[in-house]
Each structure stands twice: as C-alpha cells, then as structure tokens.
Amino acid sequence: MAAQTTNLFLLEDLEDSRRTRDLADSDLSSLRAIADWIRTFVVKPHKDLGRAGTVCPFVPGSLERKVLWLAPERIADRDEPDVIELVNGYKRLFLETEPTGGDDADYKVIVVVFTNLPADRAQGIFDDVLQHLALQSYADDGILFGPYYEGNEGTAIYNPSFRPFQSPVPFMFVRQGVTSDWKFFLDNEELLSLWARRHGESAVQALAGELRHLPWNARRD
After folding, report:
1. Rounded to 5 degrees, what are φ and ψ at 166?
2. How far apart are the C-alpha atoms of 197 and 28, rounded to whole Å?
3. Alpha-carbon distance 207 to 201, whole Å?
4. Can you tell me the distance from the alpha carbon of 26 to that of 30, in angstroms, rounded to the nearest whole number?
5. 17: exposed, middle or buried (Cβ count in 10 Å: 0-12, 13-18, 19+)
6. Which residues of 106-129 are buried (b: 16+ CB within 10 A; e: fewer)?
7. pLDDT band for position 216 (50/70/90)?
8. What is the pLDDT of residues 18-66, one digit of tens each?
9. CB burial class (10 A; 0-12, 13-18, 19+) of residue 33?
C-alpha cells in the first residue's frame, strides 16, 4: 500500500493517453472531475468568498509551477488502519518529492482522490485519519491534510455561509503548512500553538499585518 510517484498525475497528464493508459476508466473519470473542479472553481474568484482573489490563493501558483499532483486510490473495502497508513505513505512521498526546499516547496501539493468512496462515508473516514495523523504530522514536519467531499460543512473564513470544501469526488490533500494558515487554526489551540512555535517571528509579523488593518488601530485627532 506504499504510495508511488508513478501514481501522481499533473492535471495536463489526464489528457495524455500514454500517461493514463493503465488507469481504470472510473479512476480516470474521477481524476478528471477533480481537475475540472479545480479549473472552474478553485482557481476562480467567487462572489460569496468574502474577499478578493481566487477561492484558493495558492493553487494558481501550484499549477504554474507544476507541483500539484492528483493520485487515485480505492479505499471503499479497506479498514481504518489501512487507510491511515495509506495517507501516511502519501505524507512520506510528499516529503521526498521535489521540490523539497525553496519557495516552490510551499506550493507543492498532492491531492489523494478516493475514487470509489461514497460521499456519505467520507467524513467518518477522514475524521479517523486526521485524528491519528494531523497533530503529529504538523508538529514533526509541518504537514497539513485537507479533507474535501460532498456535504462538507466547513465554511470560508470570511463568509460563514459559503462552503468551499465540497468536491465532486472525496479527496484529501497533503501540503506544507505556511505562515498564513493561522486563520484556520484560531479555534484549535493545539494547532495554533504548534504554528506559533514553527513560524516564530514570521508568525508575529503575520498577525501584526492583520491587526494593523483593524478599526481599533485607526488614528484619532
């Protein structure tokens, strides 16, 4: 069940029959559904997002640098320990895959697409994976996992009525944590503390940059 680099596909690879010839039709269809969703939703602005810019500010840079890969996996008949080890294997693969340093590494992401997982089972399985891996992976390596699936009730930071984490096929991304992640950690004291220790002075500067724009800092005559 070890994750393999041959299982990683750039979005443009999905239109190359030489790269996809060993994929089952259902797996290829699932990967293409996610690729289309990325192109038509994730890298586009949205009127309900609550801020300017694309739905995800990092994915356009990932696509430009060609460091966003999709990986198909079938887990419907696997038990919890197998799925946890599978995702942990993708974390190890992520750490070993170039680029491993420099600015480009901040844009690197592996999207593990669970091609035969029913959406109504995704939350339970993903919750188990995160419970076992999330804190330790971030503490040890600064790695974050992000679950997406139809019915995900997670909301946008700037608009609690907007739910951008609902994808046409369940997936979990693996990426390097960055300084701006603090916005996702405000309600999780453990992750926020780990973030502060990991980013140090840059964490302070990130928060200061946000606070400078708040009304309490308005100068008065």
Report:
1. -105, 115
2. 41
3. 10
4. 6
5. exposed
6. bbbbbbbbbbbbebeebeebbeeb
7. low
8. 999 999 999 999 999 999 999 999 999 999 999 999 999 999 999 999 9
9. middle
Q: Is the dihedral of CA 139, 140, 141, 147 positive or negative?
A: negative
- Bridging pattern class, strands 143-148 and 171-176: antiparallel
* Closest by Cα among 172, 207, 144 to 72: 172
Rounded to whole angstroms, how far apart are CA atoms 58 and 68? 10
Task: Say which amino acid occupies 83.
Answer: V
* Cβ atoms of residues 112 and 171 within 8 Å: yes
Residues pairing with 54 in the sheet: 45
pLDDT classification of 213: cutoffs 50, 70, 90: confident
Q: What is the rounded CA–CA span in Å between residue 104 and residue 100? A: 8
What does pTM read for this prediction? 0.92
Please report, for residues 58, 138, 177, the alpha-carbon distance to residue 207 in angstroms, rounded to integers and kept in the order given.
19, 20, 16
Task: Determine the Cα–Cα distance for residues 20 and 81; give it in Å rounded to an integer.
Answer: 29
